[in-house]
């Protein structure tokens, strides 16, 4: 059953170690306008000390325009900090969304193994 807030439709896992220059955000489920706020909070909470962030979208089932906007804002914020961004996708749907939107190269997208 879906809650009105949609809170169960997206899972975000932050991985990294204190003092380590790399971190990862794993996103699973529906990455849409109802969930962008949660993603933004998780991304904002990351340490200023990270040098590379990987956003793993390989387990997402929906990626809408609000989610794409959130990824663009994240890229700009990381650029200001001198941090690199990698976005990992695994399905043809995910790859197509990022290519058609014109963001594939801008976001540093890599096609990985299927989940």
UniProtKB/TrEMBL annotation:
Membrane-crossing residue ranges in chain numbering: none
Ranges for domain STAS: 25-115
Gene3D superfamilies reported for this sequence: STAS domain
InterPro entries: MlaB-like_STAS, STAS_dom, STAS_dom_sf
CDD domains named in the record: STAS_anti-anti-sigma_factors (cd07043)
Pfam family, one: STAS_2
Protein name, as recorded: Putative anti-sigma factor antagonist
Organism: Ilumatobacter coccineus (strain NBRC 103263 / KCTC 29153 / YM16-304)
Origin organism lineage: Bacteria, Bacillati, Actinomycetota, Acidimicrobiia, Acidimicrobiales
């Amino acid at each position: 059953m879906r809650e009105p807030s949609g809170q169960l439709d997206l899972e975000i896992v932050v991985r990294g170690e204190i003092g380590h220059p790399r971190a990862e955000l794993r996103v699973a489920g529906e990455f849409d306008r109802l969930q962008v706020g949660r993603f933004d909070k998780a991304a904002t909470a990351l340490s200023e000390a990270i040098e590379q962030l990987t956003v793993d979208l390989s387990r997402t089932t929906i990626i809408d325009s609000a989610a794409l906007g959130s990824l663009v804002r994240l890229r700009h914020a990381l650029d200001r900090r001198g941090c690199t961004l990698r976005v990992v996708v695994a399905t043809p749907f995910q790859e197509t969304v990022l290519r058609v939107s014109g963001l594939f190269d801008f976001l540093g997208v890599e096609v990985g193994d299927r989940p």
